[in-house]
Amino acid sequence: MRWLRQPPPRGVLLALLGVCLAACFAVERFGLVDDYVRFVLVTLGINIILCVSLNLVNGWMGEFSVGHAGFMALGAYLSACVSVKWLEWGDPLWMFPVAVCAGGLLAGAVGFLLGLLSFKTRGDYLAIITLAFLMIVKSGLENIPYVGGPRGFLGIGSHTTLLWTALWVVVTLWTIRNLVYSRFGRGIVAVREDEIAANAMGVDTRKAKLAAFVVSSFFGGVAGALFAHQLQFINPSVFDIVKSTEILVMVYLGGVGSLAGSILGATVFTILAQLLQPLGTWRMVILPLILVLLMIFRPRGIMGMREFAWFVPRREFKRKEDGK
């Protein structure tokens, strides 16, 4: 297994991605799996996007956000409005990507405004502000009749396919991987290690935190859009603190500051959630309990601060070999 600890030869990663995307297309085109397995696979992809995007803020940047479900809700509702109310006459082939991007952009824009307010201060204020933001979004959606109010938004088309989900997973992993290993990304990681020292070394810490928060919010909105077009029905109560807790469990289960950990956490959580379905409401007791136990016994998660070599750029290995 030594080869797994080294970057893959050039072209191998692209070939593997091509095979995976072709397999997703074949599954959709020829119906190779039943509807339940397909539903679980799409849910897994959405959970990976949520987990990786929140990990950018809570893992690499070292802040604590609990409002990711709020960004997910914004993306879900705007994309539903775009595809059902505004572009209902359009072709789903191009309408769906527009709806998903619109949801992500709204979430990113709101994340920018929220970040401007939050990052004027230091400490645990981001957790308090994002919690308040989540409550405002949920209450606001419950009082807007245009999007169904407390009854929810009906009539959303089933456009989230396995291939679309896989493509967005690849885009999310590629974007965040290149961000955290870039020169700018080192500033984001420096904020986690010591914000005062990073500031003293010339890192614009407020700009770094704001950029990371906007990217995280954008992909939270994208995940919400995919979620809405998977279930074909959304309700404000779906995007409550329980949903945010589930995303936190995925992040801290897999490991903070790790792409491989995010994928692992999302996979374990998705399978565990399916296995616990027969327990009904007790499932909502067990999942937060897992978060409490993780914080006590393994606060950084299974892969905390460690990375699978295939997610690390080759230049990073060369830099280590050169001792820089």
Topology, element by element:
Blueprint: H1 12-30, H2 35-60, H3 68-86, H4 92-118, H5 125-142, H6 162-180, H7 183-193, H8 195-200, H9 205-231, H10 241-254, H11 259-275, H12 283-297, H13 314-321
Question: Can you characterise this structure?
Answer:
This protein is mainly α and 324 residues long. It is 70% helix and 0% strand. The two termini are 27 Å apart.
What attributes characterize this protein structure?
324 residues; mainly alpha; 13 helices; 70% helix; globular
Short description:
The protein has about 325 residues and is mostly helical.
How big a fraction of the residues is strand?
Answer: under 5%
Measured on Cα atoms, how large is the radius of gyration?
A: 20 Å
Low-confidence stretches: none
Give the overall average pLDDT.
87
User: What's the number of helices?
Assistant: 13
